[in-house]
Design a protein that fits this description.
mainly alpha, 2 domains
């Protein structure tokens, strides 16, 4: 499929999928294809969501068959099945990696905490009391509430995202045959590792703010911050060239001001 002239090729491969906060939506092919979806089509619990998924899958399979014919590939070749089996074995091994375990546990724990915590409600009531007592003015209160909301949104957005990108990076590294580097391309797994590291950094910054706002949750917050720091160290060790990876659009300010 031919891209429009202003589109940035591959920009969506190394983004954080947070379209509402992205400045490149007008240059993203994926955003254009999803921005006109109805609320029902975006709701995982709605029938329209799954109908849309089914239609997209059908289109993808048609394109796959066309490409297979074009390159003379037989989809029923037993060697292909063998390749899929090997990939499943690799995936099982990757799940045992310390980084995979840490990111999975972090996402699961934070998700459960976010569901149960009354921290936002309690802090909101505290801010209201401070305004009523004249301790802070309304503008200060609005700023504090906005900062609080922003931090919670950041943490929730990345809680599972980190694991997904970490797994993609680890799988990519395990399956790397050297072709990308030999042919002058950046390695995809480095790009996945880079966006995972960015998500970790942003989560750390958000937790640091919440640590100051919620001293009663200090132990939990410090534990998650320590986990994130550990993940960050492992990402750097496993993917030493990830920081050099140039993400289309995002890491090219001169090309796309």
């Amino acid at each position: 499929m031919k891209l429009k002239p202003n589109y940035i090729e591959g920009i969506f491969n190394y983004c954080d999928r947070w379209c509402e906060r992205c400045t490149f939506t007008s240059r993203c092919n994926v955003y254009e294809n999803t921005s006109d979806l109805t609320p029902e089509q975006l709701d995982i619990h709605n029938k329209a969501f799954w109908e849309n998924i089914a239609n997209n899958f059908k289109e993808a399979m048609q394109m796959l068959r066309q490409k297979a014919e074009e390159f003379g590939i037989d989809p029923n070749d037993p060697e292909l099945s063998k390749g899929f089996d090997n990939r499943e074995k690799t995936k099982k091994e990757i799940k045992k990696h310390p980084l995979a375990k840490l990111s999975w546990n972090y996402g699961s724990e934070v998700f459960e905490w976010m569901k149960k915590t009354e921290a936002i409600k309690e802090k909101g009531n505290e801010v209201i009391r401070d305004v009523e007592l004249g301790i802070v003015n309304e503008r200060q209160a609005e700023k504090e509430v906005a900062s609080l909301q922003d931090c919670f949104e950041i943490i929730q957005w990345y809680e599972h995202f980190i694991h997904v990108k970490v797994m993609r990076a680890l799988m990519g590294k395990a399956e790397d045959d050297g072709w990308e580097r030999e042919n002058g391309f950046q390695r995809d797994f480095d790009g996945s590792a880079k966006i995972a590291a960015i998500a970790i950094d942003r989560s750390l910054q958000a937790w640091a703010v919440l640590h100051n706002l919620f001293p009663q949750n200090e132990d939990e917050i410090l534990n998650w911050m320590a986990t994130l720091q550990k993940m960050k160290s492992i990402v750097r060790a496993e993917f030493p060239e990830a920081e050099k990876f140039i993400r289309p659009g995002f890491d090219e300010p001169e090309k796309y001001p």
